[in-house]
């Protein structure tokens, strides 16, 4: 049987894009867990990881076979800094 290998996300903040979904999902300190025969990326939703931070601190699980792209940030602080930059960019585009 072929061994499954995964990226190293320990201690990182990861933002993933899902097949057929325009939204991205941020996960703090994710790990891979096999559930029901499928691999999931499981971690905590960080501040800024949901609209209005309604799910901040909740556990999030994303099916790895549905991930099409991902970004790796060094920390939650690094993610927040980049998110602020993105929000400023969006505001400029609206003006």
The helical percent reads 10-25%
Distance between the termini: 55 Å
| Tally of DSSP β-strands | 5
Q: How many distinct domains?
A: 1
Biggest sheet strand order reads 4-3-2-1-5
Beta-strand share of residues? 35-45%
Mean pLDDT: 90
- Give the biggest beta sheet: 5 strands, antiparallel
Structure, described:
The chain is of the alpha+beta class and 95 residues long. The protein has 1 helix and 5 strands. The chain has one domain. The protein is 20% helix and 39% strand. Strands 4-3-2-1-5 form a 5-stranded antiparallel beta sheet. Strand 1 and strand 2 form a beta hairpin. The model has no long low-confidence stretch (mean pLDDT 90).
Summed up, what is this model?
With 95 residues, the chain is α+β, with helices and mostly antiparallel strands.
Task: Please render the helix and strand layout as text.
Blueprint: E1 13-18, E2 24-35, E3 38-44, E4 59-63, E5 67-73, H1 76-94
Antiparallel strand pairs: 1-2, 1-5, 2-3, 3-4
What attributes characterize this protein structure?
single chain; 5 strands; 20% helix; alpha+beta; 95 residues; five-stranded antiparallel beta sheet
